[in-house]
Specification:
- The protein is an alpha/beta fold and 355 residues long.
- 40% of the residues lie in helices and 16% in strands.
- The chain has eleven helices and 17 strands.
- Strands 6-5-4-7-10-15-16-17 form an eight-stranded mixed β-sheet, with helices on both faces. Strands 11-8-9-14 form a four-stranded mixed β-sheet, with helices on one face. It has a three-stranded antiparallel β-sheet with strand order 1-2-3, covered by helices on one side.
- A hairpin with a 2-residue loop joins strand 15 and strand 16.
- Helix 2 packs antiparallel against helix 3.
- It starts with 5 loop residues before the first strand and ends with a strand.
């Protein structure tokens, strides 16, 4: 990609500040774990895979910055860092998956020297980073077969390089198809209230010289009716055992519209987004953010005084509305519950997965 979403710099982590896009490209240096956690909470960095990578790097950075101390005190300090990282955002399971991997390293190195623990935590964080890019590229390779010459592809929010370590899930599918020489139209929902589609996805595609058309969220149904949209690909923040998917608010009504208009609706996500511990989308915690994100735009109030606002950041799309789930192990088909369990155990090569 022509930009870096997140970079490990040894003594600090460099983040592209996504709050300032598309008007300004500015990077933020996080020199301690608390600044990384703050960056996740305030959406300097966002997107399920990206915040998992950031949390892992933040934990590795905390280990480097922690002064030499007794093993028990060091572990207690690291547990506190993991705890406040977990409290940054509740819906995206990649965050908890990455933190769990870092905790496993701490468990496995409990009798090692401080220098060895630091080195192994750093190596694990960089491994998570590298695996994410590699996995996203595989998602793109599997998913590109869904895009045909001349079709119209719609995506919602931002599931590109900005939402990952540096390639993208839903946008990874678009990048892979475009690099193969396919010619198609890309439509992007603006994605209220934070406008991640209009601000971020459109900006990404411009960087890669892929033509894009931004539409307001309430235009999608009309474009489907007119035959302008022939495929929808979105990302995910958590996928339940039965295939229900939590993604950016507005995904659920988009899936309903797609079902009505017979437009295939696909989800693109790495297997780290699967949460097989929960039965359905009803069990997925939904983050509610500040009402000011709805009542204000660029700090200016856009609704009357004393008017309240409801601001869930995500919704849940039932598995019945989803055609398939594009993972780094192949395209998962129904029945989702059976195949999600199998893909978690054995990977591709099973019935129900296009690989």
């Amino acid at each position: 990609m022509k930009f870096k979403t997140i970079e490990w710099k040894g003594n600090y982590i460099r983040l592209l500040d996504q709050r300032r896009l598309p008007g300004e490209v500015r990077y933020l240096k996080c020199r301690d774990a608390s600044s990384v956690a703050r960056a996740i909470r305030t959406m300097v960095i966002r997107g399920a895979p990206a915040i998992g990578v950031a949390a892992a790097m933040g934990i590795a950075l905390a280990a480097k910055k922690t002064r030499p101390c007794q093993p028990r005190a060091f572990r207690a300090a690291m547990d506190r860092v993991c705890d406040f990282m977990e409290r940054t955002r509740p819906t995206a399971v990649n965050l908890f998956w990455a933190i769990h991997r870092m905790k496993q390293v701490l468990d496995e190195t409990s009798f090692s020297s401080l220098g060895e623990i630091r080195a192994k935590l750093e190596a694990e964080a960089l491994r998570i980073y590298g695996e994410d890019i590699e996995g996203n590229q595989k998602i793109g390779e599997y998913g590109k077969v869904l895009i045909k010459d001349g079709c119209g592809v719609l995506t919602h929010c931002n599931a590109g390089a900005l939402a990952t370590a540096g390639y993208g899930t839903a946008l990874g599918v678009i990048y892979a198809a475009w690099s193969e020489g396919k010619k198609f139209k890309v439509f992007v929902d603006e994605t209220r209230p934070m406008l991640q589609g209009a601000r971020l996805t459109a900006w990404e595609l411009v960087q890669e010289k892929i033509p894009v058309t931004v539409i307001t969220d309430n235009m999608a149904g009309w474009l489907m009716k007119r035959g302008r949209i022939s495929l929808i690909v979105v990302g995910a923040d958590r996928i339940a055992r039965n295939g229900d998917v939590a993604n950016k608010i507005g995904t659920y009504p988009l899936a309903i519209l797609a079902k009505f208009h017979c437009v295939p609706f696909y989800v693109a996500a790495p297997t780290s987004t699967l949460d097989l511990t929960i039965a359905s989308g009803a069990d997925i915690p939904i983050e509610e953010r500040s009402p000011e994100e709805v009542t204000h735009f660029r700090r200016k109030r856009i609704v009357p005084e004393k008017v309240s606002a409801f601001n869930p950041a995500f919704d849940v799309t039932p598995h019945t509305l989803i055609e398939g789930i594009i993972t780094e192990k192949g395209i998962l088909r129904k029945p989702f519950e059976k195949n999600l369990r199998e893909i978690g155990k054995r990977g591709s090569g099973i019935r129900g997965v296009d690989a």
